[in-house]
Amino acid sequence: MTRNTAREIAAHLAYEWNFTDLPVGEFLDRRLAPECFAELAPECGLYADAPNAKQAQYIRRLVAGVADHAAELDDYIARYAQGWRFERIPLMASAVMRVAMYEILYMPDIPHGVAISQAVQIAGKYESAEVVKFINGILASFLREEVKD
């Protein structure tokens, strides 16, 4: 499994976590179990291989971080979503942006350009071209205004 695949799985799980009442740790324990990957693999090739320990740690760090900082990340999204009410933003688009913003803010080992380009690439699989352009614009504005290198 590549880091890009792990990032996409993290976006899936960040999205899915919106629909559960489980604590994020318990949710991740269930969703990252090899049995869960084996069950999902026939439906989605993304789950063909269960993550190794390093990949699982990366996914956990992303999803738990997104969960812990959801209000902060959503505030950034709302602030830069010009012309869109937060409620109008598709949940998968929000999940993708939260993952990228979390990487930019809290994972200094991830280059900012990689976080944004991967977010745009992942979003392209699930959202319309208009939404992908919107995501790219929000992330670029966020980086320009909030992150001072």
Automatic annotation (TrEMBL):
<dbReference type="InterPro" id="IPR035926">
    <property type="entry name" value="NusB-like_sf"/>
</dbReference>
<comment type="similarity">
    <text>Belongs to the NusB family.</text>
</comment>
<comment type="function">
    <text>Involved in transcription antitermination. Required for transcription of ribosomal RNA (rRNA) genes. Binds specifically to the boxA antiterminator sequence of the ribosomal RNA (rrn) operons.</text>
</comment>
<feature type="domain" description="NusB/RsmB/TIM44">
    <location>
        <begin position="5"/>
        <end position="144"/>
    </location>
</feature>
<keyword id="KW-0694">RNA-binding</keyword>
<dbReference type="GO" id="GO:0031564">
    <property type="term" value="P:transcription antitermination"/>
</dbReference>
<dbReference type="InterPro" id="IPR006027">
    <property type="entry name" value="NusB_RsmB_TIM44"/>
</dbReference>
<dbReference type="Pfam" id="PF01029">
    <property type="entry name" value="NusB"/>
</dbReference>
<protein>
    <recommendedName>
        <fullName>Transcription antitermination protein NusB</fullName>
    </recommendedName>
</protein>
<keyword id="KW-0805">Transcription regulation</keyword>
<dbReference type="GO" id="GO:0003723">
    <property type="term" value="F:RNA binding"/>
</dbReference>
<dbReference type="GO" id="GO:0006353">
    <property type="term" value="P:DNA-templated transcription termination"/>
</dbReference>
<dbReference type="GO" id="GO:0005829">
    <property type="term" value="C:cytosol"/>
</dbReference>
<keyword id="KW-0889">Transcription antitermination</keyword>
<keyword id="KW-0804">Transcription</keyword>
<dbReference type="InterPro" id="IPR011605">
    <property type="entry name" value="NusB_fam"/>
</dbReference>
